[in-house]
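Hello Y.,

Per our agreement to keep a running log of every chain we model this quarter, I'm adding this entry. I've kept the format consistent with earlier entries: sequence first, then predicted structure.
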Amino acid sequence: MRLADDEKAMRDGAEGPAVAAAMNLLVRYGEALGAEHLCDTRNVAGTMTQPSPVKERLVREGGWPKAFSVINLDSDAEFEIPHMRVPTCQLQHGFSDDALGVAPYPASMVDLQADAESFYGAHGVNILATCTPYQVGNLPVRGEHCAWMESSAVVYANSVLGARTNCEGTASTGAASLTGKIPCWGNHLAENRHGTHLIEAEVPVEGFLDWGMFGYFVGDLVQENRPVVTGSLAQPDLTDLKHFGAATASSGGVELFHLPGITPEASTVEQAFGGPPPHRLVYGARERRETYELLNSQGSSSDVDFVLLGCPHASIDQVARAARALEGRTLTAELWIMTPRALRTVADRNGYTEIIHRAGGRVLTDSCPAMSKSAPEGTRVFATDSAKQAHYLPAILGIEAWFGTLEECVDAAVTGTWRGELR
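Predicted structure for the entry above:
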């Protein structure tokens, strides 16, 4: 790769051994990807504080500097870690202390995470602790080069915000945080941001359930390509687009989509493709029904033990909607609502948390059952309004899944029975 003078200086140790190790990693990474150069970034989102047995061992051996060196810089050298060079945030990680006594999650991991937050917070990492950093302050602008992890965050940043990031990893984000650099390839390049497939919805797509199903269909169809979606689409809001993008990234590997007239890089279909569009593919009544059945193919027992809402992490409007659905009711199954800690504070002030807790539900922060591999003890069957969690959690925890609306999920939590159906 061609390195600028400041990049050569970092590689050669002008800013210390940790930065040199970071630049060495980025050069190796970029060359493996075929990148010709690095680009500047001032926005990094990674998972430095997420606890694990490996980190626990490394911290015992040499403290958090050693853990960062090995895991985030791919280096066995021991050196002090400087303050992050560019704004960096922590995405979702392990369960926090609000899950103690609720989730079967080791208290030692909660303590390890708290220790990590102290270390990394002092080194310039903003502990947002959410897969939706754009909901709580990290909102990159159109055209801004970022280095983000987490598939649902990446597809939202690229598509809805028009920022530019590939789906990065633990090491590349760690290196980017110390250098302000990331290999310039993939979604960073304008020529790689045009659409590849045109999908037209011939049935109405309106509301959270349908945006999730449509996204799941689109991702499965295009895999890692860049869909352009049109048709009978209602005006989406933040939660619809969050849900749609997360579903495309789960069933496929979508990092960028275009909704002409909605997303910022495509006023028209022609602009989305950079020229004439290809042959259209159709999402109709049959495809809608098949997608719903696919998402519900992992459930056989209608006896629901656990209901999960908030994946990607719930917006404050979603928490409010759940509170309204739960008011005056009593749960028989476990109900967890996952949301960013900053929005949990808003929910507390608005009285939503009290309503949810009074019904027997929980508002939890920082993580999710898939990320922390933890569900209520004895869970065999769960229900969710998230296509992403319906896709992942059965494989991660070996449990059955039902997918439906928020209201159907709340009904299952109240009755202990799944009664959802496609309307």
